[in-house]
């Protein structure tokens, strides 16, 4: 996303939301890398949940992560 990411309204909304909630970062490291969350089941279950950041500050829904984690079936040994 590089520099163009700073011109997106959603990025600024996410920044102010985090700032209002008391989040403070150290601004160290690679700041232009978007992240993601994956919940992967055992064996052949594969990917149960995939969330990729589309812009800086996108958050995954915690209830959806918990719901996906509950779907993981233990693998028989």
UniProtKB/TrEMBL annotation:
Its main location: cytoplasm. The keyword Cytoplasm applies. Pfam families: AhpC-TSA_2. GO terms for molecular function: antioxidant activity. It is found in: Cytoplasm. Keywords: Antioxidant, Cytoplasm, Redox-active center. GO terms for cellular component: cytoplasm. Belongs to the peroxiredoxin-like PRXL2 family. PRXL2A subfamily. This is Peroxiredoxin-like 2A. The lineage of its organism: Eukaryota, Metazoa, Chordata, Craniata, Vertebrata. The gene is Fam213a_1.
């Amino acid at each position: 996303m590089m520099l163009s990411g700073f011109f997106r309204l959603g990025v600024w909304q996410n920044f102010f939301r985090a700032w209002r909630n008391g989040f403070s970062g150290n601004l160290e490291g690679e700041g232009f890398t978007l992240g993601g969350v994956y919940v992967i089941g055992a064996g052949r279950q594969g990917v149960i949940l995939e969330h990729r950041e589309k812009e800086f500050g996108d958050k995954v829904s915690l209830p959806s992560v918990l719901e996906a984690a509950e779907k993981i079936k233990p693998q028989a040994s």
